[in-house]
Write a structure and sequence with these properties.
It is a single chain. The protein is mainly beta and 184 residues long. Helix content is 14%, strand content 39%. The chain is built from 3 helices and 10 strands; from the N terminus they run αββαββββββαββ. The N and C termini lie far apart (61 Å).
């Protein structure tokens, strides 16, 4: 436990804003250090609306700084990089339940991210599905996730450890293309 507090103090000292996603300094930038794996499982585009599903699955990240912090304090939120044009065009759901925020957050006039906030009572170690819906200008995967060629970026934040919320690992994944249309 002493190791976690020392690491938290070091991490707090590094909590300076960054110019690129996740727009803050993270304790660790190795996705394997997270106590979760984030995988895009489904994408559908229907009538100007893009629906993207991610599966968040617990993994063993013991003996890593972030693995220890996340297993001790839990996940507060997962952020996905997004485009500034997506303000007021995004909805997010955890396990089919709408999250409290339905827009993007903007750390600056040219940067944005989609915050998916977790309930602190979410059972630790449970797999959950995150659904993100983009409308209008954000009904395109690359626009919604501020990506090039279907690469999405994410960051995991712990549930308020002793002093503050910390950015743990960040990572990225590639979009799984939708299945081709059924033949007539």
């Amino acid at each position: 436990m002493q190791r976690v507090f020392v690491l938290l103090a070091v991490a707090a000292a590094l909590g300076v804003a960054q110019a690129s996603f996740p727009y803050c300094r993270c304790i660790d930038y190795t996705a394997a250090s997270a106590s979760v794996q984030i995988t895009q499982t489904n994408v559908q585009s229907v009538n100007g609306t893009l629906v993207v599903e991610f599966l968040v699955t617990p993994v063993n990240a013991a003996n890593t700084v972030c693995g220890d912090i996340l297993s001790t304090y839990g996940i507060e939120k997962i952020q996905f990089d997004s485009s500034i044009v997506c303000d007021r065009s995004v909805s997010s759901f955890i396990g089919g339940v709408k999250t409290s925020l339905t827009t993007v957050e903007k750390p600056s006039p040219s940067e944005a991210y989609i915050p998916v906030r977790f309930n602190p009572n979410l059972a630790p170690g449970a797999s959950v599905t995150i659904t993100i819906i983009g409308r209008g200008a954000c009904a395109n995967f690359d626009t919604l996730f501020h990506s090039v060629g279907g690469v999405y970026k994410w960051a995991v934040f712990n549930w308020k450890s002793p002093n503050k919320t910390l950015c743990c690992p960040s990572g990225q994944g590639s979009v799984i293309p939708p299945p081709p249309p059924s033949p007539p």
